[in-house]
Amino acid sequence: MQKKKGVVSTESYKGVRDFYPEDMAVQEYLFETMRDVVSHFGYEEYSTSILEPSELYAAKTSEEIVNEQTYTFEDRGGRQVTLRPEMTPSVARLVAARRRELAFPLRWFSIPNVFRYERPQRGRLREHWQLNCDLFGVAALEGDIEVILLAYELMRAFGATEREFEIRINHRSVIPETLDLLAKKHNLSLPEEKQQDLLRLMDRKDKLSEEEYGIRLATLLGDDLAKVVLLQYNAATVRTLIAETTSGKRLLDLLAALEARGVANIVHDPYLVRGFDYYTGIIFEVFDTSKENNRSLFGGGRYDKLFDLFGMDSIPAVGFGMGDVTLRDFLETHKLLPAYHSPTELYIAVADTSSHAFAAQLAQRLRRHDLTVVVDLGEKKVGDQIKTATKKRVPFCIVVGTKEEQTGVYTLKHLESKHEIIVHEQDIADAIFEVLE
Ligand code: HAM
User: Measured from the CA of 298, which atom of ligand 1 is nearest?
Assistant: First the structure.
């Protein structure tokens, strides 16, 4: 349809989020559950601005994100500014700025919205909220274990069983180290300067056709080495070589430790890379195991060297980002989202506008009993007001007219069951709480 000149569309900017109250209730449920779990692990909340100087992302974030996916603009003073596409560089900036004063180890979390210019599709939008949990100052394997356990406990708190999700784990260096061992058997070697590009290419493997992947591998590594990667780098050979590498040993120790602590749904995925250049150690991704939504839900890893960015020595850092879009898809797929409850407990319908003032005062008195109350201040018939309350899914309703004003006695109706009881004003709150609690 042709848009009338001067008329503004009600549609939001493509790929960003509007939350109507029912969506907001879901969002709040997600955030409350997240906050509850992470604070039990001692993680403390921080926050930063949505705007960052663009240079923060130039060196260490993935090329794809920086070149193709950031919202970057020049401000009025000629500075390059970026809407944060992720939180990790921001939190690293905060830690780096006060590294002398802060009491390490730090356990920090935040739930920011982040922006990426992506083609909107299921599980991928241009704006999402992301729980970020990061542990700074622990280089030991115990740090990786804690962070993965935290991810696991979050999934459990949302009601997921071990069969419904899987944690895929790898170590960034396992790929080049095992490949190098394979290459040596053919008198070849994997040059160090090619490693980062190889990891980037492997990360994009699923997005390329087999042929295109083969061509790019050959261009990067030469035909012989590309053949070794294509034909011999697979789960079975990696399994035989892994214990011969330092990173492989750490990975095996991690898998064993998690299993010993009761996490059974973990697997080593030799192709897991994760897109960011800053990961240096253990990386992991949580996957939905259902057929309908078989996709990555969230992930993270160790990134000790990100602090090079600020010209300082590395600080041990490990963490993850859990996105709200993929989490919500998961919870919907597995029917784990709680039913919507109206935040209002009692709806007061008014027989006639002359009772508005009385009804408003009654509402005020009831709120002092900690009841959530609204008065229908419209001019519709009582029947229509009750329909409104039902549509809003408010559990209880009373009607106020001259008789109620005089007697102080009300008919309290439970809208779903249509059950009614006669109550005095002072008993309304208790009668409602008895049913709702
Ligand atoms: P990431 O894998 O890019 O990692 O994002 C983490 C999660 O955010 C994803 O697994 C997904 O749940 C969600 N996500 C990412 N992009 C989108 C999108 N376009 N639409 C909806 N959801 C999305 C990071 O951002 C790292 N900074 C995480 C981290 C924290 N690593 C260490 N600490």
Answer: 10
